[in-house]
Design a protein that fits this description.
177 residues; mainly alpha; metal-binding; two-stranded antiparallel sheet
């Protein structure tokens, strides 16, 4: 009798001795089907049970593995808030250094995200290696982020803050007079 047959007999005996509901029986069937997919050594041990982390442990683990400050994530999907802030600072102050900062941001984002078909999200911005690109491009990249990059280099009369307000999706609405 093969080792696999012996193990199945043990499982069957265990099953017969336990009052399992249909859900558990279904899980056993799935496990047995998976068992047949590849040989499993006698030395194979199941993984240790995972204890849920407290919030503090979770934050500490993320800080250690992702090397980023609390409140941040390593994924960069090209959200508009950073360039939006630069645009507002330029429009409010008129200081051309904000345009220079925005241009450096634009060049860095394009360099890191450009693909044959568009601009991808970046998996881990804390990595010092070449960025790992995600297979995604969010619509706000086109609808909002690029709009703020464009507006940063227009004259102040294009969507003047005296006449227009932009909503959270960067759509301009004329201010009531």
């Amino acid at each position: 009798m093969s080792r696999q047959s012996q193990q199945r007999k043990k499982l069957k005996k265990l099953h017969d001795n336990l009052d399992l509901n249909s859900n558990a029986a279904s899980r056993q069937d799935t496990t047995e089907d998976s068992w047949d997919q590849k040989p499993i050594s006698d030395l194979w041990l199941p993984p240790e049970p995972v204890k849920p982390l407290s919030h503090e442990e979770y934050i500490q683990q993320r800080l250690e593995t992702e090397h980023i400050p609390p409140g941040f994530v390593s994924l960069n999907d090209k959200r508009p808030e950073a360039i939006e802030s630069v645009w507002y600072m330029y429009r409010i102050t008129g200081d051309p250094s904000w345009q220079e900062k925005g241009w450096r941001m634009f060049e860095a984002v394009i360099k890191a995200t450009q693909t044959e078909d568009g601009h991808s999200a970046i998996h881990d911005v804390s990595s010092t290696e070449d960025p790992v690109k995600e297979d995604s491009m969010e619509s706000f990249w086109l609808a909002e982020t690029l709009k703020y990059f464009y507006l940063l280099f227009t004259t102040p009369d294009v969507i003047s803050l005296d006449e227009w307000v932009l909503n959270t999706e960067a759509h301009p609405f004329r201010r009531p007079t």
